[in-house]
Amino acid sequence: MVLNFSDSTELLATAEKAELYNKLVAQLIKDFGLANIYIDLSLEILPNELKSVLKEKIYRLIMERFSEYLNLFLYRRCSRESF
Questions:
Q1: Of 16, 35, 42, 55, which has the fewest CB atoms closer than 10 Å, so is most exposed?
Q2: Beta-carbon count within 10 A of 13 CB
Protein backbone atom coordinates (compact mmCIF):
# COMPACT_ATOMS: atom_id res chain seq x y z
CA MET A 1 0.00 0.00 0.00
CA VAL A 2 1.46 3.34 -1.08
CA LEU A 3 0.34 6.48 0.71
CA ASN A 4 1.23 9.98 -0.40
CA PHE A 5 1.23 12.81 2.08
CA SER A 6 1.49 16.47 1.19
CA ASP A 7 3.32 17.30 4.45
CA SER A 8 4.35 15.89 7.80
CA THR A 9 1.23 17.20 9.53
CA GLU A 10 -0.93 15.05 7.26
CA LEU A 11 1.30 12.05 7.91
CA LEU A 12 1.04 12.46 11.68
CA ALA A 13 -2.74 12.93 11.53
CA THR A 14 -3.07 9.72 9.51
CA ALA A 15 -0.84 7.88 11.98
CA GLU A 16 -3.03 9.05 14.86
CA LYS A 17 -6.23 7.93 13.11
CA ALA A 18 -4.74 4.52 12.41
CA GLU A 19 -3.56 4.30 16.04
CA LEU A 20 0.06 4.10 14.91
CA TYR A 21 1.29 7.38 16.36
CA ASN A 22 2.59 5.90 19.63
CA LYS A 23 4.38 3.17 17.69
CA LEU A 24 5.96 5.84 15.49
CA VAL A 25 7.23 7.76 18.52
CA ALA A 26 8.51 4.56 20.14
CA GLN A 27 10.36 3.67 16.92
CA LEU A 28 11.91 7.13 16.74
CA ILE A 29 13.14 6.81 20.33
CA LYS A 30 14.58 3.39 19.51
CA ASP A 31 16.24 4.55 16.27
CA PHE A 32 17.91 7.56 17.85
CA GLY A 33 19.03 5.39 20.76
CA LEU A 34 20.52 2.74 18.49
CA ALA A 35 22.44 5.49 16.68
CA ASN A 36 23.70 6.69 20.11
CA ILE A 37 21.96 10.05 19.77
CA TYR A 38 20.04 11.43 22.74
CA ILE A 39 16.61 12.85 21.95
CA ASP A 40 14.16 14.09 24.57
CA LEU A 41 10.92 12.35 23.55
CA SER A 42 8.16 10.69 25.51
CA LEU A 43 5.25 8.62 24.25
CA GLU A 44 2.90 11.41 25.36
CA ILE A 45 4.41 14.03 23.04
CA LEU A 46 1.90 15.84 20.83
CA PRO A 47 2.31 15.75 17.04
CA ASN A 48 3.20 19.45 16.71
CA GLU A 49 5.75 19.13 19.51
CA LEU A 50 7.20 16.04 17.84
CA LYS A 51 7.66 17.96 14.60
CA SER A 52 9.42 20.79 16.42
CA VAL A 53 11.71 18.50 18.40
CA LEU A 54 12.66 16.49 15.30
CA LYS A 55 13.30 19.62 13.20
CA GLU A 56 15.51 21.12 15.89
CA LYS A 57 17.38 17.87 16.53
CA ILE A 58 18.04 17.16 12.85
CA TYR A 59 19.09 20.77 12.24
CA ARG A 60 21.56 20.63 15.14
CA LEU A 61 22.92 17.28 13.98
CA ILE A 62 23.47 18.59 10.45
CA MET A 63 25.06 21.84 11.61
CA GLU A 64 27.07 20.68 14.63
CA ARG A 65 27.44 16.88 14.55
CA PHE A 66 27.22 15.82 10.96
CA SER A 67 28.88 12.45 11.52
CA GLU A 68 26.16 11.57 14.07
CA TYR A 69 23.51 12.64 11.55
CA LEU A 70 25.10 10.31 8.98
CA ASN A 71 25.14 7.48 11.51
CA LEU A 72 21.40 7.95 12.12
CA PHE A 73 20.67 8.16 8.40
CA LEU A 74 22.80 5.13 7.54
CA TYR A 75 21.40 3.10 10.43
CA ARG A 76 17.84 3.69 9.20
CA ARG A 77 18.77 2.93 5.61
CA CYS A 78 20.66 -0.28 6.40
CA SER A 79 18.04 -1.64 8.79
CA ARG A 80 15.29 -1.25 6.18
CA GLU A 81 17.33 -2.88 3.42
CA SER A 82 18.27 -5.86 5.58
CA PHE A 83 14.65 -7.01 5.79
A1: 42
A2: 14
Going by the DSSP 8-state scheme, the letter that residue 6 receives in this structure is S
pLDDT digits (tens, 9 = 90+) for 15-71: 888 889 999 999 999 989 988 899 999 999 999 999 999 999 999 999 999 989 888
Which pLDDT value is given to residue 21? 92
C-alpha 36/C-alpha 20 separation (Å) is 24
For CA atoms 11, 13, 19, 23, the dihedral sign is positive
Asked if 38 and 13 count as a contact pair (C-beta separation under 8 A), the reply is no
d(CA 31, CA 29): 6
